[in-house]
Amino acid sequence: MKLPETQNIIRRQRLYEQLFIILGIVALLVALMTLLALFTRLAIDGMPRLTPDFFTNFPSRFAERAGILSAWVGSFLVMFVTACAAIPLGVSAGIYLEEYAPKNRWTAIIEINVMNLAGIPSIVYGLLALGLFVQILGFGQSILSAGLTLALLILPIIIVSTREALRGIPGGIREAAYALGATRWQVVSDHLLPYSSGGVLTGVIIGLSRAIGETAPIITIGALTFIAFLPSSPFIAEFPFISFKWVLDPFTVMPIQMFNWTSRPEEAFQFNAAAAGVVLLAMTLLMNGIAIWLRYRIRKSIKW
Fold this sequence. Notes:
With 304 residues, this protein is mostly helical. It has eleven helices and no strands. The chain folds into two domains: 3-47; 50-301, Orthogonal Bundle (MetI-like fold), CATH 1.10.3720.10.
């Protein structure tokens, strides 16, 4: 091939690369501007309703008296159950599949199914939870059923992210640890988990961010659209000072409350829904911020 032809090919490829970069930047700007416009409109409509009474009042048929007390408390408790169930189980499953499971046909089938579960619509998880948690196990339409349902929903995300984080660790770290006489569990607990914590927490962030805004599976298992009471307190005056009665109480969550208000014809309830949307976004950002801060601190404490 002649030199001028080679130079023309290189110039053409560079031109394509520049066009692709410009196209990517334009797509990113369009997405960011759309998100900013939606959030601005949401904030403008909802900010006047963000008063202390809005956070401390129960829902009401009068828009000016309605609040989100039961909704944000329910969301917090449901997400607590979800995190307690999904994070240990998902991380443990990812570690087993990547570090312990034999490479055979059954393991390949499990891996394929885990990947496919991440793309299943959330309503399917709601139907599964309705039959398993609500009816067969008898948990009823409770916080426990909702938390376990969302845990199943985000479990594939955490498993896949854990495996990818473990795969990204150089093989020399494993070999050096084994050469010094470390057991497999010591390699996993003392080396692989600390080094992969950033990737694992990223998967947890993505999973919990998806779970907090889900509506379809929560409606399927019977979340209440109007609730004027709080679950039982987890703290009691008698020993052992902790009660788990609240996990079997009825509940509602922020997306359900927003759905209830947006379905009403009065304009005042639309403003309430906008304010609830702002609170839900703030909760998501706060949750993500805490996880990012933890990831930063863990990475900073690791010495390679």
